[in-house]
Amino acid sequence: MTQRLPIAFILLTLLIDAMGIGLILPVMPDLIQEVTGGTLAQAALWGGVLTTVFAVMQFLFGPTVGALSDRFGRRPVLLVSLGVMALDYLVMALAGTIWLLLVTRVVGGITAATQSTATAYIADISRPEEKAARFGLTGAAFGLGFVLGPMAGGLLSEFGTRAPFFAAAALALANMAFGWVVLRETVTDRIRRRFDPLRANPFGAFRQMGSLPGVQRLLLLVFLYEFAFMVYPSVWAYFTAARFGWEARTIGLSLALFGISIAAVQGGLIRLILRRFGERGTVFWGLGFNTFAFLFLALVQNGTVALAFTPFIALGAVVTPALQGLMSQAVPDDAQGELQGVISSARAMAMILSPLAMTSVFAAFAGPGAPLHLPGAPFLVSMALMVVCGLVYVARPRAGAAA
C-alpha cells in the first residue's frame, strides 16, 4: 500500500497532464476566434504557434525541472507544478486576448515538463528489473489521457468554450490534494544532488548524460524513434482521408482505438514481452515490428483492413519504456530526475520537428503535382528511420547490456 497509492498519484498526474491537453483541443479553434475576432484559418495559424510554444517550453525546461527535483525533492516539485497548472487553466478560462493565451501556453509547457519528475519518482521506488514495466505504465496513463481528454472536452464544450478549462483546473487541484496526502518524498540526503545551472538546461544535461557509457547512443535512439513514431499524429488524418476517403468520425474512431491499444500494450502486455525478451530484446522486437507496420501502412489500399490493423500497430510501442529502463539503470540515483528531463527534451524536440517533416513529405507525394502519388510516403520515411534505429542500437552491441 505504501507504494500503490503514490504510484496511483503519479499515474493520475500523467493522465491529468494528457487530459488537460486533450480537454482543450476541441474548443481551441472557437476560443482563438473568440479572442482574436479572426477567421478559422487565422485561428489555425495561432493554434500552431501555441502548440509549438508549448513543445519548446517542454524541451527547454524538462532538464531544469528534473534537476530541481533531484535537489529539492519530487514531492514539492510535483505539488507546486499541479498548483501552477490549475492556476494556468483558470487564467486560460478567463483570458480575453491571444497574448494572454500565449503566456498560458508558456507556463503550461513548463508545468508539463514535470513528466520528468513523475517518471523519476517511479525510478526511485522501483527495483532495476521493475523499471521498464513501470515506465510502460506511465506511458499507458499518458496515452489514455489523450483518448479521454478530447472526448470529455467535446462533451464539456456544450457548456461553453471556457468550461473545459475550468474542468482541467479542478482536476489538477483535486490531484494536488490527493498527492498532498499520499505522496512521500523519495529524495533523501543520500541521493540529493546540488543544483547546477550549467547542467539544468537541455544542452548541459545532454552533455552530462552523454558522458555516461551507452547513454548517449540510447538518447539518440529515443529521438530517432519518437521522430518516426510521430508520423501517426502528424499525418494520420490527412493520409486516411486521401487514401481511404475517411471522414472525421472514422478518423476519430481510429485514433481512439490506437490510443486505447497503446495504453493496453504499455500498461500490461509489455510485462509479458519484457519477461520473454528482457529490455534489450524488447527494443529489438519493437523496432522490428514497427518496421513491418510502417511498410504495411505505406502500401495498404483497403480502409477496412487498415482499421482492423490499427490495434496491432500499438504492439511496437514497447521501445520507449524499454529504453527508459536501460538508461535509468545506467544513471546514478542522484541524477534520475535529470535523466528523465533529458529524455523529455529529446521527445519534445522530435514533437517539434517531426510534424513539419512528415507533413512536408505527405504534401510532396499526395499533391496534384506529385511525381509519384503515394500518400503513404511518410510511413516509408518512418520505416527507414526504424532501420537506422536498429543500426544505431547494434553499433556497440554490449553498451546497452553493460549499462
Give structural notes.
- This protein has 403 residues and is an all-alpha fold.
- Helices cover 80% and strands 0% of the residues.
- The chain is built from 17 helices and no strands.
- It has helices at 4-24, 28-36, 40-72, 74-94, 98-112, 115-124, 131-156, 163-182, 202-210, 215-229, 231-244, 248-299, 303-313, 319-330, 336-366, 377-394, 398-402.
- 51% of the residues are buried.
- The protein has 2 domains: 1-131 and 139-182, Growth Hormone, Chain: A; 208-403, MFS general substrate transporter like domains (Growth Hormone, Chain: A, Up-down Bundle), CATH 1.20.1250.20.
Number of strands: 0
Strand-residue fraction? under 5%
Distance between the termini: 31 Å
The second-level CATH architecture of the largest domain is Up-down Bundle
Low-confidence stretches: 397-403
Task: Give helix and strand order, one letter per element, not per position.
Answer: HHHHHHHHHHHHHHHHH
Determine the mean pLDDT.
Answer: 83
